[in-house]
Write a sequence for this structure.
């Protein structure tokens, strides 16, 4: 019983610390705190000599340009020598790194070195001159620190990060780390994107967030019968970062990347034609045919086989007539789940208890191949 209590206490402690490490601001604060106790581990890791140096948090990159997480400066001159951008659950915001490059190149003729810090392996190589740096290696640097308290704290933080790194490659439904679903989403998107870029034109995959802030990724191909703005796709969504054991959503879809009446009409027509291939039964059959039976068995849907409402031909014809006549369609599509009427999808629940990100990648690839085959002329 004592051993169980110790394990349970250790897990609670790790989860409590994880709430701090999960957020970039507090992770950056912890790093700055360790620097103030002993700067030498970070200076050795970044290969910075001389000194002394200071560590500054939340450095303004310019009005409306954002704030850099940590900047190391020479204490005597104030010259910045290194910038660390910390990334955990979030990703780069638009042209964020470009804005920080402008700041770095303007503050000093010899621009400071720039480090993009993420959990090892969850990001593509950042654009030059940014150098990738593992968050685990970053905090690991203090484990040999002479200060016992700093070494202990660094060891605890590194342990949390290693646990999350392992969970992101393990069974999704058993994950406990706050941003493990983000890691799963990004790593799956990167794997699928690599396959699509090798095999197809105008195809790809990208991780992002839902309107509610939950992790998701989407894979797409150009629709073979549509306009240049039309594509078929599969988006996969986590329903709650704090509860990855909840079913994720698989949404086979048709999307038109334009606005206006013509785009609404094209999205509707293409989705209606592809609808028989977008439902649960068809996706499950495709997975079984490709030897992905465990994934197929993990898929479930509502009483309409993944559609929002029954595919009534009369209702669909009425919706199309409304668009053709220039009327504003009702808020909800009468058959599909949709985003602004331009991404029309079915919705299938994925039980993740026995699945890994590799299963999600296989599911996505098979579903996309299946849709592409049925979308051919």
């Amino acid at each position: 019983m004592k051993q169980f209590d110790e394990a349970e206490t250790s897990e609670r402690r790790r989860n409590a610390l994880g709430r701090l490490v999960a957020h970039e601001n507090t992770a950056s604060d912890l790093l700055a705190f360790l620097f103030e106790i002993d700067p030498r581990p970070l200076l050795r890791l970044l290969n910075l000599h001389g000194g002394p140096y200071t560590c500054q948090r939340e450095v303004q990159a310019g009005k409306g340009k954002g704030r850099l997480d940590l900047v190391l400066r020479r204490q005597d001159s104030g010259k910045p020598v290194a910038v660390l951008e910390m990334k955990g659950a979030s990703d780069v915001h638009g042209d964020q790194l470009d804005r920080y490059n402008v700041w770095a190149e303007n503050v000093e003729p010899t621009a400071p070195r720039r480090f993009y810090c993420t959990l090892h392996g969850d990001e593509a190589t950042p654009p030059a001159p940014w150098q990738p740096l593992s968050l685990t290696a970053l905090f690991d640097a203090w484990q040999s620190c002479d200060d016992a308290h700093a070494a202990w704290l660094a060891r605890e933080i590194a342990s949390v990060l290693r646990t999350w790194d392992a969970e992101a490659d393990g069974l999704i439904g058993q994950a406990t780390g706050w941003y493990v679903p983000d890691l799963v989403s990004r790593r799956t998107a990167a794997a699928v994107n690599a396959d699509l870029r090798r095999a197809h034109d105008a195809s790809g995959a990208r991780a992002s967030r839902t309107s509610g802030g939950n992790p998701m990724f989407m894979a797409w191909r150009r629709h073979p019968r549509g306009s240049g703005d039309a594509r078929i796709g599969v988006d996969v969504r986590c329903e709650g970062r704090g509860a990855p054991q909840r079913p994720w959503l698989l949404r086979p879809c048709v999307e038109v990347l334009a606005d206006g009446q013509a785009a609404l009409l094209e999205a509707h027509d293409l989705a209606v034609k592809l609808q028989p291939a977008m439902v649960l039964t068809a996706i499950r059959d495709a997975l079984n045919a490709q030897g992905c039976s465990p994934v197929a068995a993990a898929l479930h849907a509502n009483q309409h086989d993944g559609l929002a409402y029954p595919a009534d031909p009369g209702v669909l014809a009425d919706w199309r007539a409304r668009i053709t006549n220039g009327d504003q369609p009702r808020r909800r599509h009468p058959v599909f789940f949709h985003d602004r009427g331009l991404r029309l999808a079915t919705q299938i629940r994925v039980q993740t208890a026995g699945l890994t990100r590799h299963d999600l990648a296989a599911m996505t690839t098979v579903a996309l191949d299946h849709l592409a085959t049925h979308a051919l002329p």
Summary: Residues 299 and 350 are 5 Å apart (CA to CA). The chain has a mean pLDDT of 85.
